[in-house]
What we know:
Layout: H1 3-19, E1 26-31, E2 34-40, H2 43-46, H3 53-65, E3 74-79, H4 83-92, E4 96-101, H5 108-112, E5 123-126, H6 130-145
Parallel strand pairs: 3-4, 4-5
Antiparallel strand pairs: 1-2, 1-3
Amino acid sequence: MTDEHFMQQALGEARKALDKGEVPIGAVVVQNGLIIGRGHNQVEMLTDCTAHAEMIALTAAFNYMGAKYLPDATLYVTLEPCVMCAGALYWSKIGRIVYAAADEKNGYRRVTGDKTPFHPKTKVESGIRGEESLQLVKAFFAARRK
């Protein structure tokens, strides 16, 4: 299985959020080629500002593994994590983060700049299916403005 495949799975989660009227962001946590956690934004549905895709996927992965750390796992997420999610990812000690598109407005880099908020061993990559991810978000907000 490739990064492209798992990002496609995260995009599927984002589409679930879109279908529910949520900001279309999706995430999956993968370890040893197996998806161990899935999530999509559920902020409106749960009336919970912490119900981001990353948080839900991490919680599912912790429950699946019966562990509070994920050093051998990869998070695939359709948009750059916010500072809150970056904090949770730091504490999870996740091994790798792959996000599709940058979030200039709410992404962690807006606050941290060039400093990484993640665990020192965490590797970060971006750009896989980024345009597709951005188009989902842009379409969501364009429809809201009508």
